[in-house]
Amino acid sequence: MITLRPLRALRPAPAVAEKLVSLPYDVLDSDEAREKSRGNPYSFFHISKPEIDLNPSVDPHSSEVYAKGRENFDRFIREKTLIQEKKPCFYVYRLILNGHIQTGLLACVSIGDYEAGRVKKHEHTRVDKEDDRLRHILTLNAQTGPVFLMYRHRDEIQSLIEAQTSSQPLYDIVKEYGIRHILYRIEDAETIGKLAGLFRELDALYIADGHHRSAAGLRAGLERRKSNPKHTGEEEYNFLLAVIFPHTQLRILDYNRAVKDLAGRSPEDFLRAAGERFDVIPHTAAPGTERAFHPPGPTQFGMYLDGSWYRLSAKPGFFNAADPIDSLDVSILQNNLLSPVLGIGDPRTDKRIHFIGGIRGLQELERLVDDGRYRAAFSMHPTVIDQLLAVADADRVMPPKSTWFEPKLGSGLIVHWLED
What we know:
This protein is α+β, with helices and mostly antiparallel strands. It contains 13 helices and 21 strands.
């Protein structure tokens, strides 16, 4: 049973919405956020990545940064850059990118569902990243970015959600990468009740993106419970801000890798070592086509090294095709090349590996290697939704950075204020 409830959201004043809505805090670094926000006092990065308003030498995880975020948040409310709804609402959130359309319900989900395992995970989290979002939530007393969830498609749910898009949207804006963000408000109590009732019939929701936000939201709620002698379970801190899409509408892009060095090996020695578990073939692009190698299917990889692309095909016998984890392409590359050849044992913590979302294109891999920041890069075939669901249903976890969902949710479009 999944518990949803509406919220009295904070949202952008319509006149500044296009300037305010930003990429999620975790898809770009501080320097990129600082550059994107230059000359824009309304950018939500002033709240989600407040280090952009401080000297670049300041540690992004210092108390000064979180305090700056609270200062900016209070100012946005005071100046009515963010305005609050008069009553609790659900919202329909539609994303459009290059002809792809996905439409979901924006609501609050009980942290009890997450705690009980009804909100299913597919990745481990890092304590330092959890701690960052926990401090951000507790300092601002708000959840500033929604968790990206999905459910196994049911016609009656999605039909009711889609029916709400016949009204005038609150916002219809185009942001980075040409992503169109459209938000509709659901105020009608009967419709809210019907939607909540339909979701109550579901056994589970699945995290697509936002594992750290989910974990931090739970921890924040538990901390608030302990400090509140009058805790009832109905306080805002008991609920997570989320957008929930049907699994049939979601799209996963490749999540590519770059490595800083070859672990002391020469390029020739590295290619020989890779050839023990992969067929390694130089890739020559057809005239007039992109020179990068896009893996056409699973167990195939592109590798960019010293200005050239190679096609890597995993040899049989080095992975278990029947195992939902071992058969993932990210596992095959990790277990047969990154770990044994390059010594990257834990990609969650190893600073020698970098992950690049597919929306940036394979030219980004070439740029990172050509400018000397990284020694080699690998293009991946995307994980598919059914693989993710199989892993989550088995209560197992994927390797880090297995999925890059696109389009990304806008940050700042809806804020869950924890004021009661």
